[in-house]
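Field: COMPLEX_INPUT
Field: COMPONENT_COUNT = two
Field: RESIDUE_TOTAL = 508
Field: MODE = joint
Values follow.
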Amino acid sequence: MSYLSDIYNGIKTLLTGMSVTGKYFLNSRKGAITQQYPDNRDTLKMFERFRGEVVMPHDENNEHSCTGCQKCELACPNGSIEIIWDRVIDENTGKKKKIIDQHIYHFGMCTQCGLCVDACPSDAIKWAQNFENSVYDRTQLTRVLNQPGSKVRAGVEE
Amino acid sequence: MNTLININNLFLSIIPAEITGLPKMAMIALIYLGIFAVLGLYLVLLERKVAAWFQLRLGPNRVGYHGLLQTMADALKLVSKELTGTVKADKFLYNLAPYFVIITSLMALGIFPFTQKLQAYDLNIGLFFLIAISSIGVIGILLGGWSSNNKFSLIGAMRSGVQTISYELSVGLSLLTMVLLTQSLQLSEIVEVQKNGWLIVQGHIPAIIAFMVFMIAGTAETNRAPFDMVEAESELGAGFHTEYSGMKFAYFFLAEFINMFIIAAIATTVFFGGWLSPFGVTESIPWLGVFWFLAKTFILVFLMMWFRWTFPRLRVDQLLTLEWKYLLPINLVNIVIMAVIVWLNLSIQF
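Field: COMPLEX_OUTPUT
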């Protein structure tokens, strides 16, 4: 009897599948679930976890929280991050302190793996959600993440 | 309604009266070719739109109003493309294969009765001719796969051979079940019989089983998903037409869609009364038969598209198990039941 029950179950499951897709078909009038990209360019916001490019957020005083520890540079598997750093004397404590001169990010080499963002102890770098990243010259893909004249926020220690 | 010119007369009025015999046949063939080439293109568009709706997408919507000219643009592109091929291909067979496929599928269209009068050729063994012609098409696929000198093409073509030889039995037997009721193979006769109720109603349970078997086997005959092992993209690239480009590829592509139309048209003619309107609502206007025929056919075409966008592809062994262990025995039992029903006059007649 398993022969007949096989046929019965086969037809039943096929009809179940067809009813599922049939419901989708009937609901397709309510609009597509896909993004109509070039049309909705002004309103399209990528989701939070989207990895566009690495950026360094600065606050209103032009301060970032990068201490120049170079952990991101070490974590990067293909050398996309280069940090040019220097030592200065801290005015408050009088001790020598490491600061960054330039946090150079080669976006052209970056594979968006996210290891640098995970490695950063002070959350100085994070992912931006932009995605229209094409340029006419690849030198434009080499970016300096810290803004000119910016300095590390007070209280962020290595 | 004699005042209404039926479409057949319209066609005949286009053709000058002094042209008869072979030139007339050639002209009718050209008209059919034109109409069904355009129909094939729009079936491609319909397939893409239906696929989009099943997956909650929009589908082609850029070329023309709601993308209506998309497949025209695609066809133009394919016409203008270079015809490439493999160096070691068997050139003669390689060039012959697409024509084999497209000609057989266009030949089958000639014998469908679109209305009472609009039928290019009323063959008295119509159904038999359809079954025969649908199995010639596979020779084109085998030729294409063999002569391309490509292992993917060859595997695809051999799978097609296995598939078509197996499923032909089911197509033939399920249609034979209905022939027991109609007692004729002539398509116009088959439609005539259905004036007492569509055959799917006349034959009730065995007819419904035969219809289900026919739709499954018909989907397999046209090499469409879930039976598309012939061109299984993830395994074989594009199967037998891997090495074809431009217009030769377009012939294969068009033939696939016209074959789908043919399978749906056979089902319409044999199970759903062909050009007859439901309950005879438009019996007084004969030319509306074209509308009813196409409406029924496109509903069945939609059903086949529904299959395609729902079911995953079968393995080869599952395909053969389905045919030889399930469809064939069911069909044989079904044909005996139908014979008993016809013998005892248990069919439902209005």
